[in-house]
Write a structure and sequence with these properties.
Distance between the termini of chain A: 20 Å
Largest interface: A-B, 80 and 68 residues
Number of strands of chain A: 0
Strand content of chain A: under 5%
Number of strands of chain B: 24
Structural class of chain B: alpha+beta
Oligomer: heterodimer
Largest sheet of chain A: none
Shape of chain A: globular
Distance between the termini of chain B: 96 Å
Number of helices of chain A: 21
Radius of gyration of chain B: 28 Å
Helix content of chain B: 10-25%
Number of domains of chain B: 2
């Protein structure tokens, strides 16, 4: 197996782009123009944000960033960052009091660039450099991504973590993958869904391609041998290292911050009600069921559907999608898992879209959306329009004070859910037709 | 037990001693325009058993109730609080003692369950005189308390006047109940708004020392700038046979700024309503001896339906665009997500320093329309429980607005006979601060109430029948579609065919 160099310079093994030189192709010919413009792009956003924050009462910086930097200041002062709003591990609060609040945003912007670079490295495994950079540009030059990170959202850090994890796995760097997986789960829980896909993908043939005996295992292997075959050194290594990293970090945080750490980092997600309007199809139902015990006139609650919400979500994202897709295409499997996790989640805000957006460039080259441009455009329009409908209802509620919960906001969230399911289905189908 | 009845007339008003009839059982006279204040002081042993048992375990308990109906304040009774039921509380050594059951019983709809759950904690490191806990909720009337007081204080054998006097509490504009473990006395003070009052007081029992005063503000030449002068007639029922004239003065922390304000929500309110204060004058009180030390403040008690976000209120640029200067105090750890129906604490208090625009006119702080200015306070609504109309109403009391001015070094403010302390904001200022109050004026369409209403969109229960089922069906369909696609890929062929068909279309 030939490993393309980091910058993806020479000898493209895959399909090549059209040889006619244009400004666009020369732009992607070398890495410098892309990364320079991606960095410049973020620098402009960052400086503009600083200017707006300093000159306008309407702030560019996300209000959650203030919570975040507050928490960071507490950490640097040796205090606990657990405040009313900070619901994450203390490790997500970098920086120190001596640093200006911009340092966090710079970190997030750099994380964006590193994620893009790793994206290119992963892409370059199956295509030439310029083409890989072209797809990496979907992330690197994406205004939504740049805005979210320069406004100070830490979601961008997830992008670099997930991309590094995928790259480490594809490079068979099991120890590094284990460390990243354990850290990722500690950092933001949801990356645990990648564990089954990675484990399933890591079979002996993949991990030791040269050692594998030419004699393929016969069709009729007993269940016991299958299980024994499943337990490979690489799988054990990954499981042990990621578990050790995850528990090590948790124990350390617990020793430093005590029980509030558990409450804010993990238990919070169990006890929270998540009633405030968001894209999730469960949202209206959650508001309804959480409030029913407090409405005197209401009938005694019967069976409530959201109690089972975890079932379709986890079935798809941790079992079915990994089983069916991981061995066919690990990156697309991870994309589909994330997409399913976000779509079927009990809370869904636009920041969560970043979770799968980083994986999108890995799938698009083989996708029907790109092969059939009209189809792709239609899907994009559907996704944007169904989201727009929800946002319109949300605006009427949030800013005009109209009671749009029912039916408007509810139907809009179900519509958006439907569109997302359809897109997920197409992604899955595309893996099958590869 | 002691009683003090005071009729406070406006400055310049007075009554001739000869107009009053004093005999062994009481005092009577003509009808005058005045504020009436009744103060009853109980020793612990004189209280009903249940109340006594509670207070014995309490360090400080102060109830301040203010009617939502706008009233005119008369010097020296000038202290103001947002209308509603306020409680300032410091537990005794046994912190498990719970005043809530008795409060619920006494005031009717006070929704507190226990100090740990319902109260907020106050900073005690700043000034030692403040209590450790706070509770507030809007409360329109004292009718429940009147019934409770009658059941406690007027046994069936008592004269009819007992019930009649307590019934008049329903017309009171303020009620203060104060207990602290040092004095071991419970003081109950009620205040009736300025208006026609018949000058009459009867001795409840010969054993109760009852003092009646008819007073008004006076300005003797010897008066210091931080003092209020009082002149009038004092009578001790059963002891004196005629009222005796009196003249005295005392330093007072609460004064009248001689300006006013109204408060309203800007529309559309949405889920992030802005409360706008319209203030008649940007200038500090002209009567203040040291106006340069004065800063305009707003003290807000916000019920749990609505809350301020301290992060939003931390940016100087944002604040100044709203004519605000800084947050002086905000209840810590306000939950920014939880819906109202699962929020156990009463709400939050907020002390804001306002930033008046530079005054153009003369230094006088008259109500000239040209100088009126506004300040905006951005707030956020919690989700409220669903209703049958899709909307609910949240009520937010007017804030207390005052200029806080610092008296000169060495000025002492010993407790005066008309002192109203433990008003929430006084604990957040130093001992030498004087509060010059702005008069709250009810806005249009508020029926004379000092409450701002905001219409909150909630889930409409009449449309909610299908939510549970249809959400389930849609999720199941979405899930099913994805599973079918997965099966297509797993048992290769199916998925491919479908896709190829799609491609050829």
């Amino acid at each position: 197996m030939t490993k393309p160099s980091a910058t993806g310079q020479p000898r493209p093994p895959g399909a090549s782009v059209s040889p006619t030189p244009s400004l666009l192709t020369t732009f992607f010919d070398r890495p410098l123009p892309l990364y320079l413009s991606a960095a410049l792009f973020r620098l402009i956003f960052l400086l503009y944000g600083l200017w707006q924050d300093a000159n306008s009462p309407v702030k560019y910086t996300d209000i959650d960033y203030l919570v975040f930097t507050d928490a960071a200041r507490f950490v640097s002062q040796g205090q606990s960052p657990m405040s009313e709003r900070h619901t994450a591990t203390p490790l997500s609060s970098p920086g120190s009091s001596s640093q200006p609040p911009t340092s966090g945003k710079v970190l997030f912007a750099i994380a964006d660039l590193v994620a893009g670079w790793l994206l290119e490295k992963v892409l370059a495994r199956s295509m030439d450099g310029p083409r890989a950079r072209k797809f990496a540009a979907i992330w690197l030059l994406n205004p939504m991504v740049a805005t979210i990170s320069t406004r100070g959202s830490s979601e961008g850090l997830l992008g670099v973590l997930v991309m590094a994890l995928l790259w480490a796995v594809l490079e068979r760097r099991v120890t590094l993958a284990g460390l990243l997986l354990g850290f990722g789960v500690h950092f933001k829980i949801y990356p645990f869904i990648y564990a089954p896909a990675i484990i399933w993908w890591m079979d002996n043939e993949r991990m030791n391609p040269n050692k594998t005996k030419p004699t393929k295992p016969p069709q009729s292997t007993s269940i016991t041998t299958r299980i024994i075959n499943f337990i490979t050194p690489a799988r054990i290594q990954l499981a042990l290292i990621s578990l050790a990293t995850f528990s090590g970090l948790n124990i350390a945080m617990y020793l430093i911050y005590g029980p509030p750490f558990l409450q804010h980092t993990y238990l919070h997600h169990v006890t929270r009600i998540d009633h405030r309007h968001n894209f999730s199809p469960y949202n209206t139902q959650l508001y309804l069921s959480s409030s029913l015990p407090h409405v005197s006139s209401s009938s005694p609650p019967t069976f409530q559907i959201e109690k089972l919400a975890f079932l379709p979500q986890l079935l798809l994202s941790t079992i079915l999608i990994p089983l069916v897709l991981a061995k066919k295409s690990l990156p697309t499997a991870m994309l589909a898992q994330t997409f399913a996790f976000v779509t079927f989640n009990k809370v869904c805000t636009s920041q969560y879209f970043l979770w799968y957006m980083v994986l999108l460039p890995l799938y698009l080259p083989q996708s029907n959306f790109l092969k059939n441009k009209r189809f792709g455009l239609a899907a994009l329009v559907l996704w944007v329009v169904s989201q727009g409908l929800w946002l319109q209802q949300g605006f009427e509620l949030e800013f005009l004070g109209k009671s749009t919960f029912l039916p408007g906001l509810w139907l809009a969230s179900l519509g958006f859910f439907g569109v997302n399911c359809w897109i997920l289905g197409v992604i899955i189908g595309d893996v099958g037709s590869q | 037990m002691r009683e003090r009845i005071t009729f406070v007339q406006k400055e310049g008003d007075s009554i001739e001693p000869s107009a009053l009839k004093v005999d062994g059982s009481g005092l009577s006279g003509p009808e005058v325009k005045a504020v009436r204040e009744d103060r009853l002081t109980f020793a612990l042993d004189e209280l009903p058993a249940e109340l006594k048992a509670l207070l014995e375990g309490v360090n400080q308990l102060h109830i301040r109730w203010v009617s939502p109906i706008a009233y005119e304040a008369v010097s020296p009774l000038l202290a103001r609080l947002p209308p509603g039921f306020h409680l300032f509380y410091t537990p005794g050594s046994d912190t498990s003692i719970n005043p809530c059951p008795l409060l619920n019983k006494a005031f009717g709809t006070v929704s507190c369950s226990s100090p740990a759950e319902s109260f907020t904690t106050l900073p005690t490191d700043r000034f030692t005189h403040s209590t450790t806990h706070q509770f507030y909720q809007p409360l329109d009337s004292l009718s429940a308390f009147t019934q409770f007081a009658k059941s406690q204080l007027c046994p069936p054998s008592s004269p009819r006047s007992c019930g009649t006097r307590l019934n008049s509490l329903t017309k009171a504009s303020q009620l203060d109940i104060s207990y602290d473990a040092i004095s071991h006395t419970l003081r109950l003070t009620s205040l009736w708004p300025y208006g026609p009052q018949s000058l009459s007081a009867t001795l409840l029992s010969p054993s109760i020392r009852t003092e009646v005063g008819i007073i008004s503000t006076a300005n003797p030449k010897t008066l210091e700038p931080h003092e209020i002068g009082i002149s009038g007639l004092l009578t001790v029922l059963g002891q004196s046979t005629a009222p005796s004239p009196t003249l005295f003065s005392f330093p007072s922390r609460h004064r009248d700024a001689a300006s006013s304000f109204t408060s309203k929500f800007l529309s559309p309110t949405g889920l992030h309503p802005t409360l706008q204060l319209s203030i008649s004058s940007p200038s500090p009180p002209s009567k203040s001896p040291n106006p340069s030390t004065c800063r305009l403040h707003g003290y807000f008690t916000l019920p749990k339906t609505i809350f301020p976000d301290r992060h939003q209120l931390s940016d100087p640029l944002f604040l100044s665009s709203k004519n605000l200067s800084s947050v002086r105090y905000i209840t810590p750890n306000i939950d920014l997500e939880a819906p109202e129906y699962v929020t156990p604490t009463w709400g939050s208090s907020l002390l804001l320093e306002l930033s008046p625009p530079p005054s153009q006119g003369s230094q006088g702080s008259g109500d000239s329309k040209g100088e009126e200015w506004t300040a905006q306070i951005p707030l956020h609504l919690r989700y409220l429980s669903p209703s049958l109309t899709g909307y609910r109403t949240a009520e937010v009391p007017y804030p207390a607005l005052f200029w806080a001015c610092t008296a000169e070094e060495g000025t002492k403010f010993p407790t005066n006979p008309f002192e109203k302390d433990k008003v929430g904001y006084d604990g957040l200022f130093g001992e030498r601060t004087v509060f010059w109050h702005l008069t709250p004026r009810p806005g249009d369409g508020t029926n004379g109430r000092l409450m701002n209403e905001v219409k909150v969109p909630v889930l409409d229960l009449t449309k909610a029948d299908w939510v549970n089922a249809l959400t389930g069906v849609v999720v199941a369909l979405g899930f099913g579609w994805v599973v079918v696609k997965l099966l297509g890929v797993a048992f290769a062929g199916g998925g491919k065919k479908v896709d190829k068909q799609k491609k050829t279309q």
